[in-house]
Design brief:
alpha+beta, Phosphatase 2c, domain 1, 2 domains, 6-stranded mixed sheet, 5-stranded antiparallel sheet, elongated
């Protein structure tokens, strides 16, 4: 027997209202779930695209690096670079600029990731341009370490990226048997070892590149009248190699009688 509910119509309205509320909540939950799934798909696609871009950028950076184990004007040159990310702000290059002169430099761009990696492209483009200028006789800036840093400085300021670079640049002359170099706040300083002589850090200091409008850099010179090793490295070496291990590795690179210039980057700046 059915009991009339006319006396409790308010309670019935409450029950029906709660049912409708539950239906609305379920529909909202379904919509939110769909939106979340779409957002996750977009995020996954974006991450995959970013990784693909970073891999492509990494390939470009690797192609900009010089070939390993080269012989330039009688000097054996080698390097090692291991970035902490896909893209690195650490960069190096070495090449012959005249029959008797070889230029080597190592640079560390401030910051991390893609924006710092873009500056390494600028450095490579600039060095290529300066070499072309020398060949056609329009500029000999690349023959002078301080003027080389001045050109990098002006290029960085013109970009407006807010990036600066620490740089060590050296020019080795076979005719003068000397190394002339300038320092743009690079640290640690390179190690020079002369056969039968002392092994020591090079001296020198200077402002970072890309911060000041009219900076000046000093040019230092050391004689290379004996077979030598020259080792350059980024400051990442201080974070990944313990002091005892570093001394052991240093001896490994210096206990050779060959005349060699070694650019060594054990790790990119973290």
């Amino acid at each position: 027997m059915l009991k009339p509910c006319s006396d409790d119509r308010g309670a019935l309205d409450d029950v029906i209202g709660k049912l409708f509320d539950r239906v609305r909540v379920n529909r909202l939950n379904q919509l939110y779930r769909q939106e979340l799934e779409e957002a996750n798909r977009d995020l996954r696609d974006g991450i995959a695209e970013l990784r693909a871009d970073q891999r492509a950028g990494r390939k470009v950076q690797l192609r900009m690096l010089p070939d390993r184990e080269q012989v330039l004007s009688g000097f054996s040159v080698n390097h090692l670079i291991k970035p902490s990310l896909f893209l690195s702000g650490d960069f190096l290059d070495y090449f012959r600029i005249t029959e008797d002169k070889v230029l080597v430099y190592i640079a560390d761009v401030s910051g991390h990731g893609a924006s710092s990696a873009f500056v390494t492209v600028l450095l490579k483009n600039l060095t290529n341009r300066l070499q072309r200028n020398l060949r056609r006789g329009s500029s000999d800036d690349i023959l002078f370490p301080d003027r080389f840093l001045e050109r990098i400085n002006s290029e960085l300021l013109d970009t407006g990226l807010g990036k600066h670079v620490t740089v060590f640049v050296g020019i080795i002359s076979t005719s003068d048997r000397s190394l002339r170099y300038s320092v743009g706040a690079h640290f640690p300083m390179p190690i020079l070892s002369l056969e039968g002589g002392r092994t020591e850090f090079l001296e020198g200091s200077g402002l970072p590149v890309g911060l000041f409008e009219t900076p000046e850099w000093e040019v230092y010179e050391v004689p290379l009248d004996k077979p030598f090793h020259l080792i350059l490295f980024s400051d990442g070496i201080l974070e990944v190699i313990k002091p005892k291990a570093w001394m052991k590795r240093k001896r490994h690179y210096l206990n050779s009688s060959r005349e060699v210039v070694t650019l060594l980057l054990p790790w990119a700046t973290l």
